[in-house]
Design a protein that fits this description.
By secondary structure, the protein is α/β, with parallel strands linked by helices. It has twelve helices and eight strands. It has two domains: 197 residues, Rossmann fold (3-Layer(aba) Sandwich); 70 residues. It is globular, with a radius of gyration of 19 Å. The C terminus is likely disordered.
Length: 306
């Protein structure tokens, strides 16, 4: 029978790091991303009601989870300048929407992150958006202190579906073995990134933009109705309960302090070189029982202005 919280597709090992997607996985979309893409391509003369618009938005839907600049370069392959201008318009549009309406967490997301932290796992948020947009979202939600790391394509050579974001999180947070990581994503490219990183659990989350079938075909080991189901899935998978998780977390601390096991990560040299630019989050609220054993990377609180 599948474990609580998800439909099991394959067997999975112990986990000590959880990489979660942002928009659609932990943060509600509410159509803001599609509107931002629509306004972005309109600046390049692709307007609603045209065949070109329908074709572009269909490609946007297929490509969700990739960095917006990568998506827009595929829409305007003949002109790097048009793609870059559209990307700036995307950032402005999405940021203006956040300023007007704010953003909301997916129901159960905050509780899920808190439970994962209590269980001894380190939590990383992964997004295809720019660092400035990521900062704006985290500022609005007040999430800087909730997670161990927040990372985006500005921090690595390649965004999703390449594995660089997940591998970078593993390195920064001292994971000993790629299989000790779980990835939860609501897009095909996010699931592909997790799969290519070698993560032991790659869960497709159905609150995202892509369907169950697409997530399964991309390589999801589990399918979850919501990120709220992830702690129950991991508890069932770990089997040993919080004590076993804590033991894994302690091992990862040793790796972060310079253990040779850290070299077991098959990360490209370019990704390792990109590490200093990542956007980590600070330690959680005082009083958490596991703060002494969980390696926290000091957060540089970046400006979210565009």
């Amino acid at each position: 029978m599948p474990p609580p919280g998800g439909e099991q597709i394959s067997e999975t090992p112990l986990v000590s790091l959880v990489c979660c997607g942002l928009i659609g996985t932990t943060v509600a979309d509410d159509g803001m991303v599609d509107r931002a893409y629509s306004e972005a391509i309109a600046t390049q003369g692709v307007v609603t009601g045209t065949t070109a618009y329908a074709r572009c938005m269909a490609q946007v839907h297929r490509s969700r989870g990739r960095a917006p600049i990568d998506v827009l370069q595929s829409l305007f392959p003949e002109s790097q300048a048009r793609a870059q201008a559209a990307q700036l318009a995307f950032d402005r549009s999405f940021s203006a929407a956040v300023d007007r309406s704010g953003v909301t967490a997916v129901p159960g997301a905050e509780q899920s992150i808190a439970r994962l932290t209590e269980m001894g796992a380190r939590v990383c948020l992964v997004t295809g958006f720019s660092r400035r947009v990521l900062g704006l979202v985290l500022d609005t939600l007040g999430w800087w202190d909730r997670v161990d790391l927040a990372i985006c394509p500005d921090d690595v050579p390649r965004g999703c579906p390449a594995p660089d974001l997940v591998l970078s999180a593993m390195l920064r947070l001292g994971v000993q073995d790629v299989r000790d990581t779980a990835v939860a994503q609501g897009t095909e490219s996010g699931v592909l990134s997790g799969k290519r990183s070698g993560a032991g659990i790659v869960a497709g989350v159905l609150t995202g933009i892509h369907t169950k079938d697409r997530l399964h075909r991309a390589g999801a080991s589990h399918l979850l109705d919501s990120i709220a189901d992830l702690p129950d899935l991991l508890s069932a998978t770990w089997g040993g309960g919080p004590e076993r998780v804590a033991a894994s977390a302690s091992a990862s601390v040793s790796a972060a302090d310079g253990s040779p096991d850290q070299m077991r990560l098959p990360v490209p040299a370019q990704a390792a070189a990109a590490e200093p630019g990542a956007s980590p989050a600070p330690s959680g609220p005082a009083g958490q029982a596991d703060d002494a054993t969980r390696p926290r990377v000091p957060l540089e609180r970046r400006s979210a202005g565009l």
